[in-house]
Specification:
alpha+beta, 5 helices, binds zinc ion
Length: 144
Amino acid sequence: MDEKPDLIFTLQKAGVALPPNAERPFFVLCPFHKDRRNPNMRVDPGQGVFHCFACGAGGDAISFIGLQLFGPSFNHRDSEMFKKVLEALERYEVPKIEYRPPPRPKELNQDIVQVLTLSARVYHLALMRETSRPRELLGAERLV
Ligand SMILES: [Zn+2]
């Protein structure tokens, strides 16, 4: 488990309108760009992370405060910026909570990698043949 500042609490303090039952992932209007009609920011309360599909803003509670204070130039490795963010989190009295670590990406097993490599080679050779008709090979002609 990972202990991090509570993202939902941070969003509330920042005045982001949250759905009444903020337990499962939900979308809100992104405060980091002009998000007017369709909420573009996905918030995952289980992992304490957010991501805006329109402007790309994303991260955890620390990134959220950092973006609010410094805009897109926020860099959590900059010790001065990081200090200011921690101060803001303290001022907001954001509690730390346990988050489960993000799931590890599923690794492709060797057999699947081998099959993908072989089929890529088969298609490559077929497409590079002088007589080949790529659109036909790819089944595109049937769509027209
Ligand atoms: Zn955004």
